[in-house]
Amino acid sequence: MSSSLYRLGLRASHTPKRIILAWLGIIVLLGALAGAFGDRLSDEFAIPGTEAQQGLDNLETRFPEMSGTSGEMVFRTTDGSPIDSHRDEITAVMKEISTYKDVVAAPDPYGEHTKGVTSEDGTALMGSVQMDGGIGSYDPNSIEKIQKLASEHTGNGLEVIPSGQMLKDPSVPISITEALGVLAALIILAVSFRSLVAASIPIVTALVGVGIAMLLMFAGTSILTVSSTAPTLAVMIGLAVGIDYSLFIVSRHIDQLRDGMAVDESIGRATATSGSAVVFAGMTVVIALIGLFITGIPFLTIMGVVSAIAVAANVAVALTLLPAILALLGERLRPKSARSSRNAQQADGPDHRSGSHAAKPARTPLREKWVRLITRVPALTLIVVLAATAALIIPAKDLRLALPDQGTEPVGSASRVGNDVVVEEFGEGYTAQILVTADIVNSTDPVGVVDELAARATKLDGVRTVQLATPNRGADMGVVVLIPEHGSSHPSTAKLVEDLRDHAAGWEKDLNISQVTVTGSTAAATDITARLSAALIPFGIFVVGLSLVLLAIVFRSIWVPIKAALGFLLSIGVAFGVSAMVFEYGWGADMLNIAATGPVISFMPIIVMGVLFGLAMDYEVFLVSRMREDFTHTRDAKGAITRGFTHSAPVVIAAALIMLFIFAAFVPESTFEVQPIALALAAGVFVDAFIVRMTLVPAVLALIGERAWHLPAWLDRLLPNMDVEGEGLATVLEHQAWTREHGRAVIRLNEVTAPLLSGTGTLGPISEHVRSGEIMLVTAPTADERDTFTLLSAGRLLPESGHVVIGDRIIPLETGAAQQNVLLTGEDPVGALTRHRPSDPTATAVVLPSLAALVEADGGVDALLSRTRQGSAAVIAADTDPAALLDQIDDLADVRILDLADLRTRPTDENAEVLA
Known about the structure:
By secondary structure, this protein is α/β, with parallel strands linked by helices. The chain is 55% helix and 12% strand. The strands form five sheets. Strands 1, 2, 3, 4 and 5 form a five-stranded antiparallel sheet that branches. The chain is elongated, with a radius of gyration of 35 Å.
């Protein structure tokens, strides 16, 4: 991967204006699509396959007056007089509301069959309003007209207050605190880079990535239902990861400029090395977010996809737009001291060196002192960290999950004011109505059977009263509206939903009815919470299992993945524990502007697990990869920890602080749905970066020693190679240096060894090359050696060591691209050579496994020579006397014979794996 990213970075640095214009074109196009096809957001939570959703779907088709989004109009006197004294005015208000667009029903609360609810003291009355469709799908002007009408009729001893879900605003709230989070990130970057220009780059690229994701999302709202929480989460996550991803690349680029590297080369290398880690980190976050489909809940899956798009967009921006911006800024990003040194070097000649950066620092950096301290007695560090995190994890046992109701809206908002009035005048149960529907087509007394169903339901614990019991107009469906004793998030309400369902079968049998269904928004919230709670463990196994596999591939170790996964669980536990302290215990809730305490939104744990997983793996890779690299070169386990930590810590600290401030900035002014997610992520990032990765991880690695970097040979063979640390870049740079010194070769084998196809030995090491227009005839004692070399030259056999280059594409780093530069043919060489039309003949290798087939074919040699004259290189296995070809070639200057007789070495039990 690093070799491809290196070329991508160089290409972007060579054509920066074209890259920037391309991104501007994408933004304009997406903006036009969003403007043309964008629709409103919706906070209608649907969960297919549940009883509540089936009931809501039945209501929509058979009892439309009871479907859609509900609301209430509360009328109360301000002078303590009976509310009935305002009967005519109340009737007129409800009649006016019934004429508004998208209002399905607004019955007279004094009607014979539509009586409203009167408070115990007789000073307040509540009427119902039913809107068409889910939250946010109806005309917002109708809600404004309802609110204006309520204001006009408030006075003369009467107060009119709208309430209910119909007031919920699905728009995306953005406040000054989010901007303050970005400002904090800018300050951290400015301190890290000591340059305001450099600090601005990650902010700009992150905003571009988030903007693209938002435009894509709004363009898709015409065909998908997107909740108002989705864009807020995507913006929060996209900003955080976008700034961090660019930070990693810019930091590497500036370090290389400080060391005197040329701008273009530095951009390519930074994209290849840090960019590889960015791809890995982004991939893990995207996989985790898309993995939310495990829940089987569409709105949550879409939420994950929108956030995943924001992450993927930021990865793409970091790998393409960012190098272009770095190229435009050029030498301006080179630190001043390094710039002066470079100018002096250019003036004095190539041998001039500045000692300012080579000199050993006089003082030991604080980060080095820290890592030495925590690894001095690693067992003690381990005990202290585990004890501290355990204390923070314990409150997580009290964390409750639910969907928020209007009581969690910001204080002073219209929906919160209405909710508080309903609770004050009628009780919290009236904000959590439960609907019981039944098919009554077999009944001869529709009204009587619905009344009997209501009577039986009221006998259950937790039912306060029946608000409504009525059949539909067709008398084939009955609806009972129950008022529980408590609100929707109270445990007794969820138990009441379960009890109603448990009694449904008995009621169906006794009353000769069918399809008794418990539904409504409260029952739907209960179902969603239950579904999400059930999905937590499978999703946790998915995330932890994925981390084990990915880190085993990256670090070629067993202990490192296990340690990383257990550390991730500690971070998650602390994140949930801190959330419980604030939202359940109320500690610091007022300071954080939390509107209400109690259960957090049901999907908080699963979202936090997915996002924090990607971030934790990000920190793990950046910290531990440098330790592994140092250990590989020195075999000094403890010293590698110190040196690797000291080198990597600054960028990880900056990245974690940026994440912390971005997430924390979304806590005070966001909706109640987002607040616990933002708080948990802020707490999780702090603990994961500073406690787990920068304290626990070095101590554990010191405790394990050299065993931390061991991987059994059988497992090493099973796991694929993933070049996350940019190791493949060294191979690319070596090939470039070889090409500068020796000239370009179409095929090059550098210290290549490979098992023979028969498995009876090993071929190599081989260092050979074939240039453009050359022909190499391969001879060997047996066909085994010839065939093995032929497949190596064609990119169809992976080397055991060393690397094969075909058309400047390196195997095993770029096997697929290398194979595209090869024509491998045996039975019909003339036809294949005639039909094949390469885009660049000078980068194409013609590999023929049989010289005999070539010379015996009519026109075979001429076809081969025609191709080599175009610049292609040829490798031919000489299964017959080479003279058969040499006698037909006039100029033998470009023909070489390679004898493999001395290149067969030790026996091996491994069979070569031939690639398709």
